[in-house]
Amino acid sequence: MNCIQWRTDGSDPFPSWRDREDYLDRYGARAVLWVGDIRSVHNWGWSPAALCVALRGRLLAGNRGCAVEVGSNDVLVTEAGNGLRLEPTGSGETRVAMLWLPPPTARSRAQDPLPAFFADDAELAVALGRLIHAAQEPGGSMHLCLDLVLNLLAHRQLTLADTLRNCPGRSDRHRRQLYSRLLRAKNLIDHGQAVPLDLAALAEVASLSPSHFLRLFHRVFGASPHRYLVQQRMLRAHRMVVETAVPIGTIAQRLGFINRCAFARLFKQQFGLPATRLRRQASAHLRLGAPRLLQTLGSPSRVAYSPVSNAA
């Protein structure tokens, strides 16, 4: 696969295309690399699969109903199809790199990558940085850097293979389509904003009926969507309690818990300690210069699935 760097002609700072056929007419089987600043919301009505990384600042990337915040060293793999939305978050300028991958053709028999979010993946982010540098240097080895990025991406995609096998389907293509839909909802739970997410909302993101989504999610990931949602938010709560100074009430609110008392009860149930006591013990260990001991404080491995009606 070859790669070209998109350069503005002065009329439009963003690459654009109408649909799959328009992309192939313009670029063929070549990837398109774009680096630029996002100062306001920008939308693509159709987009091939792409790798997105924030070089400076943070951005909210929305794709197929799943919106996640991308920060330093985070790499988002978007799903091919209708809709891609980029929006800067916070103050300051947001600089973004996008690597659009060409749509597969019948002749190539390639497959679009599955949607994924690789949090704090320095190896893949650095490989993308090398590709950007090679594109800007005369005689840069873009093809070698692109091969490295694609090899790393293929290796990351293998981590999804085990759960993909659990997904039913009439054919391999149908199985991947269903799995991609489930991954939209899972990625939203794992990395999306902490907004209330009920079964109907998650099923809508996956473009499935609530009953069908519930059965498929449990079959593929081994837990109901609600139990998985609670588990992931409690793990995030544990990290925030131990690693930050954010007030406990604010943590509960950010993670979508309307009732702080319910959050406190569930936190103690899952980790064996109230959040305030866990934070005090974590701070004491840090002062003693023993950060490894934090692993023994309310270990996240104790998280159990537990329904909480007002958690989301």
UniProtKB/TrEMBL annotation:
InterPro entries: AraC_XylS_family_regulators, Homeodomain-like_sf, HTH_AraC, HTH_AraC-typ_CS
Superkingdom: Bacteria
UniProt xrefs under Pfam families: HTH_18
UniProt KW keywords: DNA-binding, Transcription, Transcription regulation
Signal peptide coordinates: none
Entry keyword annotation includes Protein biosynthesis: no
Domain called HTH araC/xylS-type: residue spans: 183-281
Protein name in UniProt: AraC family transcriptional regulator
Organism field: Tahibacter amnicola
